[in-house]
Amino acid sequence: MSITEDVLEKIEKREATIGVCGLGYVGLPLIGAFRRAGFTVYGFDIDDAKVDALEKGESYIKHIDFDKLRVAVEEKKFIPTTDFGRIGEPDILLIAVPTPLTKTREPDLTAVEGTCAAIAKGLRKGQLVVLESTTYPLTTEEVCKPILEKSGLKAGTDFFLAYSPEREDPGNPHFETSTIPKVVGGHDADSMRVAEAVYASIIERVVPVTSMAAAELTKIFENTFRAVNIALVNELKLMCLRMGIDVWEVIDAAATKPFGFMPFYPGPGLGGHCIPIDPFYLTWKAREYDFSTRFIELAGEINTTMPYHVVDGVMQHLNERAIALNGAHVLVLGIAYKKNVDDLRESPSLKIIDLLKAAGAKVLYNDPHCPVMKRTRHFDLGMQSVELTPELLASQDAVLVLTAHDAYDWDFITEYAQLLIDTRNATKFAKKRDNIRKL
Ligand SMILES: NC(=O)c1ccc[n+]([C@@H]2O[C@H](COP(=O)([O-])OP(=O)(O)OC[C@H]3O[C@@H](n4cnc5c(N)ncnc54)[C@H](O)[C@@H]3O)[C@@H](O)[C@H]2O)c1
Which of 175, 195, 173, 176 shows the shortest CA–CA distance to 186? Predict the structure, then answer.
């Protein structure tokens, strides 16, 4: 039997074992999906604390069922480990490690390269390696493949290679891993067959494309589409503020068009691990081809200025009350990058708090999902969430809404706040009061 038929049969019988490298927001839901389909799964990470937490069932990501994973650990159906010496044990290896930007906004593939190097040391014949991390087109071919082939094995002959992007939307109750269509591109025909079979065993719809680069670009295009459209509404908002038109009313009215329009909403800036970062992966790669991605650059410019616009707006609204920002008490509501999650990565709230503090404001924050402001790549502000009481709200010169978590009671908040500055249209359904300003 060929190595292809062998692994296909193992997948069919659920006897193939899966190894997921990177036990984070993407890796853990994938592990859950393979477990539900009956596969035994290995979880590789360089972080001891995460492996310990998984063994004990201690949660480090809110919406993941750590109890179920702990039971799987006890049954030896889930093996979390930092021991990359075991990388040869699973039949399928999926890489879901971070792909951030460097300080100079260039792709930082350190984690992908490190993982591929660790895999190369133990790679064996017949294994499938799939990169799932978001990255620029041709990464799997030009970066991963040469590192993996240092094992002495050849892609497409000795081992299978593919790229398949993740479309996780943490906190979205309407979709889970198995119901989100999965795009897959293989290095060669056999790699494609094996990768398709693996994903078809956990996902309702697999979308094959003819190359790994097409799959890589699909993901970046999806996120660039969001970044550009968000920039467009952010620009529209700035114009509307000047013209005295309510941008949210305009978007809601436009969204009644039953075809050809999709609403995007303005905010205090882009956040999350994907949208602010991924387009710059494409920009960087395009430069190699003497191609300038002008839409992306412009969108980036507009989105990057939004936190500065918020701070200017706070200053102006305080000024109307003859209060200087320097020394003003400002309470920020919501620091996560989007509502109802505890994820602080690239959150514009951190930038805004940093700017407010630099201007001399005395800043407090409340976020029911983030009791402590954890250190991120760019900020270490060391703050803790304060309790929302009538006294606290009334004592602040401004209450600034940056993330509109569902847990907030806007009637309660606006009843006690002296001045409420709303960057999210959070108070849309709250009682109309003259202390509310949209920004
Ligand atoms: N979070 C999302 O919603 C989302 C959605 C789609 C795509 N993605 C992409 O998926 C990839 C992973 O993102 P994430 O959100 O799961 O990140 P994450 O930070 O939550 O998890 C990544 C994990 O990888 C581990 N890691 C780092 N270096 C490693 C190495 N050399 N070897 C093994 N493990 C290593 C980290 O310790 C961490 O546990 C990124 O490319 C991201 O852009 C994320």
Answer: 195
CA–CA gap between residue 267 and residue 284 (Å, rounded): 26
User: pTM above 0.85?
Assistant: yes
Please report the pLDDT score of residue 65 as a whole number.
87
Element (H, E) at 333: strand 329-333
302 alpha carbon – ligand 1 mean position (Å)? 27
The atom number, within ligand 1, closest to the CA of 343 reads 1
For the CA of 47, the closest atom of ligand 1 is 37
341: left (phi over 0), alpha (psi -120 to 50) or beta: beta
Q: What is the mean pLDDT of residues 134-150?
A: 98
Rounded to the nearest angstrom, the gap between the alpha carbon of residue 66 and the centroid of all alpha carbons in its chain is 20
pLDDT > 80? residue 171? no
Kindly tell me the sign of the dihedral angle through the C-alpha atoms of 410, 414, 417, 419. Answer: positive
The Cα 276–Cα 273 span in angstroms is 7
pLDDT over 90 at 377, yes or no: no
Within this chain, domains 3-215 and 226-438 share the same CATH topology: yes
**So what's the pLDDT on residue 177?**
87
What amino acid occupies position 119?
Answer: I
pLDDT at 170: 74
Ligand 1: centre distance to CA 128 (Å):
19
Determine contact, residues 269/306, Cβ cutoff 8 Å: yes
Question: CA-to-CA distance for 128 and 325, rounded, in angstroms?
Answer: 57
Domain boundaries, the chain: 3-215, 226-438
437 bridge partner residues = 421
Instruction: Please tell us whether the domain made up of 226-438 is placed in CATH 3.40.50.720.
Output: yes
| Chain centre distance of CA 274 | 5
pLDDT of 78 > 80? The answer is yes
Atom 25 of ligand 1: nearest residue by CA position: 22
Q: What is the pLDDT of residues 19-66, one digit of tens each?
A: 999 999 999 999 999 999 999 999 999 999 999 999 998 888 877 888
In CATH, the number for domain 3-215 is 3.40.50.720
